[in-house]
Design brief:
There is one protein chain. This protein is mainly α and about 150 residues long. It contains seven helices and two strands; from the N terminus they run αααααββαα. Helices cover about 65% and strands about 10% of the residues. Strands 1-2 form a two-stranded antiparallel ribbon. Strand 1 and strand 2 form a beta hairpin.
Length: about 150
């Protein structure tokens, strides 16, 4: 692969990873999901679904805010019944954030919405191209610079 392809991929990743791009997508996906689920709390729900129970401090780097920001978002989600706090068995002073059944259902709905949005966006691609892209992206994530 030449360096030009590397630059193109880097530019595309830069656009994809921009906070504004993510926030806009999260806002679109969470529309109508209730007051507690919005572009700010979506990353907390999504990360907990991927990683399992975590403390606010452990969750903060993945969500992209500090521990107090995660705590504020978690309080909104807890009030809505989407997460609960449980004592951390490894640290008696800490609490873990855990998805409730309602939280898992909300995440399932959000993932369905995201998959539908992606599918709609790729619907004009020639047959097989979207599947190939999905395969290549997964390979890039497992074998590329992020592995």
């Amino acid at each position: 692969m030449d360096n030009e392809a590397g630059h193109e991929i880097a530019d595309a990743l830069g656009m994809l990873l921009r906070r504004g791009t993510r926030t806009q997508l999260h806002r679109r996906l969470t529309e109508g999901m209730g007051e507690a689920v919005d572009e700010l709390t979506y990353p907390v729900l999504s990360t907990l679904a991927r990683t399992g129970p975590r403390s606010a401090a452990d969750l903060a780097p993945d969500v992209g805010v500090d521990r107090s920001g995660v705590t504020r978002r978690a309080s909104r989600l807890e009030a809505a019944g989407l997460i609960r706090r449980e004592p951390d068995p490894a640290d008696g002073r800490a609490y873990l954030l855990v998805l409730t059944e309602e939280g898992r259902a909300a995440v399932a709905e959000l993932r369905d919405r995201l998959a539908a949005h992606i599918s709609t966006s790729l619907s004009a691609w020639p047959p097989g191209e979207a599947e190939r892209f999905a395969h290549d992206l997964r390979r890039f994530m497992t074998e590329g610079p992020f592995s």
